[in-house]
Specification:
The protein is an alpha+beta fold. The protein is about 55% helix and about 20% strand. Helix 2 packs antiparallel against helix 13 and helix 12 runs antiparallel to helix 13.
Length: about 375
C-alpha cells in the first residue's frame, strides 16, 4: 500500500481524461449489466415454468370457450387437473390505473400448480364469501389494501342489475410466482362472477390443465384440440413454456441481439481506453524514466501501470454493475417480470473488466518496461 499515493496520482494526472475513461467504462458495464440481467431474468423465468402445465386457448384470438368444454377436457386420458380462467380488465379509481381480475375455481391445488403463494387462512377465507378476493402483495402495498378492505373496480362487463362497478372484499394477499406475471391481478371466485355478470355467461377465457405425464404432453394436447375440431369454438393447446418461448421468439433472437450489442460496446470501449492509456503513458515518459533512475525496476513500473488500469477499470465497472443492479428490477415492471440481477452476471462483469484492464494496459506497460532511461531523459 505504500505505493498507493503514486498509483492514485497517476490515475488522476489528467482529471479530464480520467473522468472520460471512468464514464466510458461505467456506461459500458451499465449496458452489460442491464442486457445480461434482463436476458438472464427471462431465461430463469422460462426455466421456472412447469413443463406439465398446458394452456387451452381459443384458436381464434378474441373469442371465448364454452364452460361445457370443462368436463370434456377432464375426460381426456392423461389430464390430471383442469382449471378455468376468466380474465376481466378493470380500473381502480381512475382510468390510468388498470388492473386485471382473474376469476377461477380457486382452491389449494390451483395455487400449488400455478406457483402462487398464499396462506392457508387466506385460501380458506375465499370459501366463506362469494365476493371474497385475494390481491397480490404488490397491489396491496401500492394502494394500501389489507384484509377487510372493500375495493370497487370498474369494468366494461356489467352486472345483472346493469352496474359496471364490482365491489370485492379482500380476505388476504398472495405472492406471485417467480417472474411476477400476476403482480397486477385480483383473484376472485368464478362461480360468483358467472352468476353476477350480465352477458357472456357460460364462457371462459381459457383453461389451464395439468398433465400426468410430461412426455405425453404433446399427444394429450392434440386429443384436447380434437374435441372441438371443425366447431365454432376450436382450441389451440400448448404448454406454458412453449407459449412463452414462442412469444419471446417474436422479439427476435435475443441471444444474438444481446451478444451483438454488448460485443460492439466492449470493442469500442477497448479501442478507446487503449488509445487513452497509450497517450497517458507516452506523456509520462520522462516521469517513468525518473522512477527508474531513483531505483524502480522496469517490472515494478510495469506492475504500477497495470494496477492503475485495473483500479480505474474495475472501480468504474463495479459502479456500472451496481447501478444496473438497481435498475434491472425497475425494468421488470415494464415487461411484467420480476427480474433480479443474477450473481453470475455481476461476477462475469468484474472478470470482463479485469480482462479489459489487462488488455488495454499491457502494451503501454510493456513499453514502459523496455524504456531506456538515457534516451527518455534526452527526449528521444
Amino acid at each position: 500500500m505504500k505505493y498507493w499515493p503514486l498509483i492514485w496520482s497517476g490515475i488522476w494526472r489528467k482529471r479530464g481524461r480520467a473522468t472520460l475513461m471512468l464514464l466510458q467504462v461505467l456506461a459500458a458495464f451499465l449496458l452489460f449489466g442491464l442486457m445480461q440481467g434482463i436476458k438472464s431474468g427471462i431465461d430463469d423465468t422460462l426455466s421456472s415454468l412447469q413443463a406439465n402445465l398446458y394452456l387451452v386457448q381459443p384458436a381464434t384470438p378474441g373469442t371465448t370457450l364454452p364452460l361445457a368444454l370443462d368436463q370434456r377436457i377432464r375426460s381426456v386420458k392423461g389430464v390430471k387437473r383442469v382449471y378455468l380462467m376468466n380474465f376481466v380488465p378493470v380500473t381502480y379509481q381512475r382510468p390510468t390505473q388498470p388492473l386485471l381480475v382473474l376469476a377461477t375455481d380457486f382452491d389449494k391445488g390451483w395455487i400449488t400448480d400455478i406457483g402462487i403463494s398464499a396462506t392457508p387462512r387466506a385460501v380458506a377465507a375465499m370459501a366463506s364469501s362469494r365476493t371474497a378476493a385475494l390481491v397480490s402483495t404488490q397491489l396491496a402495498a401500492r394502494y394500501g389494501w389489507r384484509s377487510g378492505s372493500r375495493v370497487p373496480l370498474l369494468s366494461h362487463t356489467p352486472q345483472q342489475g346493469g352496474s359496471t362497478t364490482w365491489i370485492f372484499n379482500i380476505v388476504g394477499t398472495f405472492t406471485p410466482p417467480f417472474g411476477g406475471g400476476f403482480r397486477n391481478v385480483v383473484l376472485i371466485r368464478n362461480d360468483y362472477y358467472e352468476e353476477a355478470r350480465q352477458r357472456d355467461r357460460g364462457t371462459v377465457t381459457q383453461y389451464v390443465i395439468e398433465v400426468s405425464d410430461v412426455t405425453q404432453g404433446a399427444a394429450i394436447a392434440r386429443r384436447i384440440d380434437a374435441l372441438s375440431a371443425n366447431s365454432p369454438f376450436e382450441t389451440r393447446t400448448q404448454s406454458y413454456r412453449a407459449l412463452a418461448q414462442s412469444q419471446l421468439q417474436n422479439l427476435g433472437d435475443l441471444n444474438f441481439i444481446v451478444r451483438s450489442v454488448i460485443g460492439a460496446a466492449l470493442f469500442a470501449l477497448l479501442v478507446s481506453t487503449a488509445a487513452l492509456t497509450m497517450q497517458s503513458v507516452r506523456e509520462r515518459t520522462i516521469e517513468l524514466a525518473v522512477l527508474k533512475t531513483v531505483g524502480f525496476s522496469g517490472w515494478k513500473v510495469f506492475v504500477l501501470l497495470l494496477i492503475e488500469s485495473l483500479t480505474l477499470s474495475i472501480g468504474a465497472a463495479a459502479a456500472g454493475l451496481a447501478l444496473a443492479l438497481c435498475v434491472v428490477p425497475l425494468t421488470g415492471r415494464f415487461i411484467n417480470l420480476g427480474l433480479t440481477m443474477p450473481i453470475g452476471v455481476l461476477a462475469g462483469g468484474l472478470v470482463l473488466a479485469l480482462a479489459l484492464a489487462l488488455a488495454t494496459a499491457a502494451l503501454p506497460a510493456w513499453r514502459a518496461l523496455r524504456l531506456q532511461v538515457a534516451e527518455a531523459l534526452a527526449g528521444r
